[in-house]
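Lab notebook, bench 4. The sequencing result for the construct came back, and we need a structural model before the next group meeting so we can plan mutations. Quick request posted to the team channel:

Model the 3D structure of this chain.
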Amino acid sequence: MKVDSYIQLILSSMNISDNNSNIAIHCESVSKNYGKIQALKNINFDVNFGEIFGIIGPDGAGKTTLFRILTTLILAESGTATVNGFDVVKDYKKIRECVGYMPGRFSLYQDLTVEENLEFFATVFKTTIEQNYDLIKDIYVQIEPFKNRRAGKLSGGMKQKLALSCALIHKPTVLFLDEPTTGVDPVSRKEFWGMLQKLREQGITILVSTPYMDEASLCDRIALIQDGQFLKIETPENIVNQFADKLWAAKSANMHKLLQDLRDHNLVKSAFAFGDSIHVTVSSEQLSVGSLNEYLVGLSHKYIEIHEIKPTIEDCFMGLSQTK
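Done. Here's the predicted structure in token form:
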């Protein structure tokens, strides 16, 4: 079945009005406090049906709190939210029937085997592995040879695939994945995102959070989050294209001193360590590569390298967080 046809089937079954017929998740002015700590501050966004929407930000930014509100596990302090047109407070039972949730920490039964975990979750949702096997086949076939192994004995990548299979076994229309690739090796991360693209092609809406900025480009749209606030919502491409400042990569023999000296320059907007170089943001046309090089030579730097580079999502995030 084509994605558009699948989405239309979902919409007709839920009798959603034309005004918001393409909205799978709607959040309006959602805030959440934990005592004196404000975990979420006036969050507003929509996720379209059949979209991979990424929430990108560091640990402690509020990603998990937002996911728990949208999956009806906790209540917001204020604001409203809907999933598949259902209110997260009034219609929590309906939401739990139509969403899949994969929390950040592996939360399956470690003493049960792979097959026993999958059978358990299928039974909870009054279905069977056989009934929805086509949906999880591409994922489950990779761990099926280990179906008699206890879940606690699986590798990180295998645990990830089992958790995703369990989240999909009842054929949800919206899938919530909270930092699903944290602590997983690069090969398994790549495989996992390939699986998500296939699920998206089947019409499943995916909301995924991650601290890895490089995974942002794999989403249709992203929201950059810090300290419980959204800094920007856009396509990854547009966020990069809207980066207004000049960006240079700089190196010298003394990287620690280089970072401090760059930050002390009055025409340098920001300087941050990125891998083996320092990314320097410059908003003033008065500063050139040559003049910056002269400045560093005057401070006794040796083996200086400075060249212009294209920004990444991480550069954009750092820039936005500085102006928040």
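The two ends are 44 Å apart (CA to CA).
Will bring this to the meeting.
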